[in-house]
């Protein structure tokens, strides 16, 4: 699969939450496939857990049990395919595939992702470095997309240097919001240090913001 020329800190939340680097979803932009490290379909499953009829997930690197393919067409995000992957752990390979889209949306060949509002992150180019302490991957370039109800409303193309400035700005704006207080209170149940809590929120800031500041 081709990679893009975007920039992004990728696998933070996936590694932090699940301990293992996750297989990405796929997004198609102008006919080119890119790796997508955000999972819009999960919002459907959170709201309607009975729709998640995916079983026999045996791979720690694919806790979702599927790989979804999206396409950005005229600034609108569409879901094109949901491929269920059964992993043969012994052979470390995919042993079975099934398109789940027709089961979840039987009347649709593709569907507008109008349930999703948030940030999409896409990396591009060569991996520059891996921060083992923070478990972060850095690439030559990144794209940050702001999606509002399935429509692309803003975007940023960043490089390895400017991503840090971007993250700092997003964090400083986020701490002014009510959402920050909600997130902070959740972390406060586990950690007592304000510095540590803010450090974690800043590290995962792209998981929390719904728009580009």
Key terms for this structure?
213 residues; alpha+beta; 2 domains; 9 strands; globular
Task: Describe this structure in a few short sentences.
This protein has 213 residues and is of the alpha+beta class. It has helices spanning 12-18, 41-47, 101-104, 162-174, 178-188, 194-203, 205-208, and strands at 25-29, 32-36, 66-73, 76-88, 93-99, 111-112, 118-131, 136-148, 151-159.
Number of helices: 7
Q: Strand percentage, roughly?
A: 35-45%
Assembly form of the protein: single chain
pLDDT averaged residue by residue: 78
Gyration radius, in Å: 17 Å
Beginning-to-end CA distance, first to last residue: 32 Å
**Which class of secondary structure composition applies to the elements?**
alpha+beta
Number of domains: 2
- Name the shape in a single word: globular
The major β-sheet equals: 6 strands, mixed
Helix % is: 25-40%
Helix and strand run: HEEHEEEHEEEEHHHH
- Give the number of DSSP strands: 9
Unreliable runs = 1-18, 130-136
């Amino acid at each position: 699969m081709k990679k893009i020329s975007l920039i992004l800190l990728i696998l933070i939340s996936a590694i932090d939450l699940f301990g293992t680097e996750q297989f990405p979803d796929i997004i198609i932009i102008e006919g080119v496939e890119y790796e997508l490290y955000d999972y819009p379909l999960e919002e459907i499953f959170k709201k309607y857990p009975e729709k998640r009829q995916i079983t026999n997930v045996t791979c720690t690197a694919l806790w979702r049990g599927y790989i979804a393919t999206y396409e950005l067409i005229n600034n609108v995000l569409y879901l094109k395919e949901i491929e269920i992957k059964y992993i043969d752990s012994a052979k470390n390979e995919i042993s079975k595939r099934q398109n789940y889209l027709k089961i979840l949306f039987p009347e649709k060949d593709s569907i507008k992702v109008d349930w999703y509002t948030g940030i999409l992150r896409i990396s591009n180019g060569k991996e520059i470095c891996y921060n083992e302490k923070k478990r972060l991957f850095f690439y030559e370039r990144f794209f940050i997309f702001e999606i509002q109800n399935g429509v692309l409303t803003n975007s940023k193309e960043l490089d390895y240097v400017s991503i840090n400035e971007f993250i700092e700005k997003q964090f400083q704006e986020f701490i002014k919001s009510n959402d920050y207080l909600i997130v902070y209170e959740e972390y406060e149940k586990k950690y007592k240090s304000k510095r540590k809590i803010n450090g974690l929120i800043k590290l995962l800031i792209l998981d929390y913001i719904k728009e580009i500041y």
